UniProtKB/TrEMBL annotation:
Cofactor note: Binds 1 pyridoxal phosphate per subunit.
Official protein name in the record: Phosphoserine aminotransferase
EC number: 2.6.1.52
N6-(pyridoxal phosphate)lysine modification, residue list: K193
Pfam family, one: Aminotran_5
Top-level EC class as recorded in UniProt: transferase
Family the UniProt entry places it in: Belongs to the class-V pyridoxal-phosphate-dependent aminotransferase family. SerC subfamily.
Keywords: Amino-acid biosynthesis, Aminotransferase, Cytoplasm, Pyridoxal phosphate, Serine biosynthesis, Transferase
Needed cofactors: pyridoxal 5'-phosphate
Catalyzed reactions per annotation: O-phospho-L-serine + 2-oxoglutarate = 3-phosphooxypyruvate + L-glutamate; 4-(phosphooxy)-L-threonine + 2-oxoglutarate = (R)-3-hydroxy-2-oxo-4-phosphooxybutanoate + L-glutamate
Residues binding pyridoxal 5'-phosphate: G76, S77, W100, T150, D169, Q192, N234, T235
Length: 357
């Protein structure tokens, strides 16, 4: 078996130790004599697993009292609908930093007035725009941001302080660094980057926000349904939640988001250094002060070079370096499970490729 250097943008690399543990206990989960995919979501054993998952997340992110952790399906894309169906009464403000915030805003327009409080759209989403004085209009229900922009490779360095509830799509940098939960009223993350397989979304939601949600929304799309039923109103994605449980245990052993932030900083620096020292052969898409530690986006001198780069990278067991179809170019995604060894190998490959071409 040869494991590749996996730079996929999501679904993406998972910690090897977790994959091995999942494999080892796949036929007999915790002495039950059954696989995790064979046990009832109403069983005590599952309830215990889900509770442990929540408690570990609470510890890792220092989630204060007054916030609920819930598990939802439908991906990040359903959250584009749900946040607005539940909470958009008057106006929703959006910081438009890429394809995913654009989509969230478009979905929300079905439920009320939406507007861009700030945007970098006209500049190809190459930076995180500043929120200017007066950017948030009166009668605004919330400000929505995307903490890390998976496609364009930008990331908020610190979060805005605003007088309206702050909502965050933290899908692509969840648990890659500490996050001040108390500054947000609502956060969600699709699992399939840093924390597990596709099929589950983790949301952290303030009690007071849930209480004020629109009561006319169908039960399956209401956050209070998931809160009241502790995420088992219907059958939850048991395997995906179990997998998250294992990733969180791994994260805790490794030193949590604080240690991940240090590693991710070092990993990203290796690749950005190659870009910056390449005399313009590699050109980063993001402005330097908006650069993402998770998704590094760059171009080569021509698309022919880019095609050769992808082709040769695959021959050297690198996977996932092609940019998203909406932006083109190249992208390396360095989520928590991508090792420093893989990043060192990529940096070396990039240097060698430049020398040979
Ligand atoms: N938000 C962000 C930041 C994303 O990167 C993505 C894509 N993985 C989504 C939302 C949409 O997620 P999904 O494909 O699970 O609907």
């Amino acid at each position: 078996m040869q494991r590749v250097h996996n730079f996929n943008a999501g679904p993406s690399a998972m910690p090897l130790a977790v994959l091995q543990k999942v494999q080892a206990e796949f036929l007999d989960f915790a002495g039950t004599g059954m696989s995790i995919v064979e046990i009832s979501h109403r069983s005590e054993r599952y309830q215990q697993l889900q509770e442990e998952t929540k408690q570990t997340l609470r510890r890792l992110l220092h989630i204060p009292d007054g916030y609920h952790i819930i598990f939802l399906q439908g991906g990040g894309s359903l959250q584009f609908v749900m946040h607005s169906a539940n909470f958009l009464r008057r106006r929703g403000a959006y910081v438009n930093t890429g394809v995913w915030s654009d989509k969230a805003m478009a979905a929300a327009a079905a439920y009320g007035e939406v507007y861009e409080a700030a945007s970098s759209k006209k500049d190809g989403f190459s930076y995180i725009p500043r929120l200017t004085e007066g950017a948030i209009r009166e009668a605004t229900d919330y400000l929505y941001i995307t903490s890390n922009n998976t496609i364009h490779g930008t990331q908020w360095a610190s979060y805005p302080k605003v007088s309206v509830p702050l909502f965050g799509d933290v899908s692509s940098d969840f648990l890659s660094r500490p996050i001040p939960i108390e500054r947000f009223d609502f956060l969600f993350a699709g699992a399939q980057k840093n924390i597990g397989p596709a099929g589950v979304v983790v949301a952290i939601i303030k009690d007071s926000l849930v209480a004020g949600a629109n009561p006319d929304v169908p039960a399956m799309l209401r956050y209070d349904t998931y809160v009241k039923h502790d995420s088992v109103y219907n059958t939850p994605p048991v395997f995906a939640i179990y997998f998250i449980h294992e990733v969180l245990q791994w994260l805790e052993r490794e030193g949590g988001p604080e240690e991940m932030a240090r590693r991710n900083e070092r990993k990203a620096a290796m690749i950005y250094e190659v870009i910056d020292d390449s005399d313009g052969f590699y050109r980063g898409h993001a402005d330097k002060n908006s650069r993402s530690r998770m998704n590094i986006t760059f171009n080569l001198p021509t698309s022919a070079y880019e095609e050769a780069f992808i082709r040769e990278s695959e021959q050297h067991h690198f996977v996932g370096l092609k940019g998203h179809r909406s932006l083109g170019g190249c992208r390396a995604s360095l989520y928590n499970a991508v090792t420093e060894e893989s990043c060192t190998a990529l940096a070396q490959f990039m240097k060698t490729f430049r020398k040979n071409h």
